[in-house]
């Protein structure tokens, strides 16, 4: 006999399942924002047409992000090696070093959710994808987003949106450690981050990892003019599907360089792999991956619109 939960889900329609997911995600967002229990009935009121709550739009958008967050986690867990493959993966650790993690003790600032004034903190290590940070006290909970403010090479700081991954207690009186994943930054700041990482990597051997690791994985995507224009519409919406000869790693952040075949027009963007499936073509296997771009939506729309105008103007 199947468990009751499976039976209930099996009997639900697609519309009912979608409505349940929306309600659960909205409830999670409300509880995170309030820091207290919120009933399903209160959350359901937000979904009624004509709801007068001034925070309705913000909460609805936040609930979509929660669904995306949960789906990405499910896909990441599903892509992890099976137990019988664990020994093989452990025997080749260099193949798992997607990003060079650079140990560096440097002062930075953090802007916690809901705060208006940044808090002093120190880096423990940093990579293209995220950082480990030392703070007096962590003022956020799992999956919250904060802003990491890092001094730039020329003195102008860069600001990066980052998501809480985990935290831990340090030695007595030493504060707490916080691990974050970078989720969004301005395109001008991604170049500065790359320059910072390169300078730090060249100043030391990062515990001997330079031989096997790299600052980031670069993905070159080239299109014909019309193909690029069509793809830019997807990019401006925040994502893009690509077919690649080698598998990527779900959850990894990479640098996507999108250009025309003649290299007259190009765009360099941060992107994260959020899904992947294998495509068999005879005896050859290819991989179709879904990318989510890690830049503010407004900036993506402006960049892609400008590039479309450039392509059209050169004809």
UniProtKB/TrEMBL annotation:
> Transmembrane stretches, by residue range?
none
Superkingdom, natural source: Bacteria
Q: Where is the PilZ domain?
A: 95-198, 210-303
Q: Which GO terms describe its molecular function?
A: cyclic-di-GMP binding
Q: Which SUPFAM superfamilies match?
A: PilZ domain-like
Query: Which InterPro entries did the record assign?
Result: PilZ_domain
Protein name according to UniProt: PilZ domain-containing protein
Q: Which organism is it from?
A: Halioglobus japonicus
- What taxonomic ancestry is recorded? Bacteria, Pseudomonadati, Pseudomonadota, Gammaproteobacteria, Cellvibrionales
């Amino acid at each position: 006999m199947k468990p009751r939960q499976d039976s209930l889900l099996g009997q639900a329609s697609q519309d009912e399942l979608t409505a349940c997911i929306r309600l659960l995600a909205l409830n999670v967002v409300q509880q995170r924002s309030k820091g207290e229990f919120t009933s399903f009935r209160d959350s359901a009121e937000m979904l009624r047409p004509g709801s007068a709550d001034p925070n309705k739009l913000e909460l609805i958008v936040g609930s979509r992000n929660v669904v995306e967050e949960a789906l990405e986690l499910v896909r990441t867990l599903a892509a992890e090696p099976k137990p019988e493959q664990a020994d093989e993966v452990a025997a080749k650790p260099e193949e798992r070093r997607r990003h060079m993690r650079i140990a560096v003790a440097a002062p930075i600032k953090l802007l916690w959710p809901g705060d208006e004034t940044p808090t002093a903190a120190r880096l423990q290590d940093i990579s293209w994808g995220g950082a480990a940070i030392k703070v007096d006290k962590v003022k956020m909970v799992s999956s919250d987003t904060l802003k990491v403010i890092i001094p730039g090479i020329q003195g102008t700081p860069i600001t990066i949106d980052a998501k809480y991954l985990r935290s831990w207690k340090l030695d007595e009186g030493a504060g707490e450690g916080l691990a974050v994943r970078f989720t969004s930054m301005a395109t001008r700041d991604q170049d500065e981050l790359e320059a910072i990482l390169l300078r730090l990597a060249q100043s030391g051997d990062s515990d001997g990892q330079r031989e096997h690791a790299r600052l980031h994985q670069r993905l070159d995507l080239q299109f014909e003019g019309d193909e690029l224009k069509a793809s830019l519409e997807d990019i401006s919406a925040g994502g893009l599907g690509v077919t690649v000869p080698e598998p990527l790693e779900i959850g990894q952040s990479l640098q996507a360089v999108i250009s025309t075949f003649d290299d007259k027009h190009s765009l360099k963007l941060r992107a994260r792999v959020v899904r992947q499936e294998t495509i068999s073509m005879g005896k050859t296997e290819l991989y179709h991956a879904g990318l989510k771009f890690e830049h503010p939506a407004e900036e993506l729309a402006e960049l892609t619109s400008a590039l479309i105008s450039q392509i059209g103007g050169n004809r």
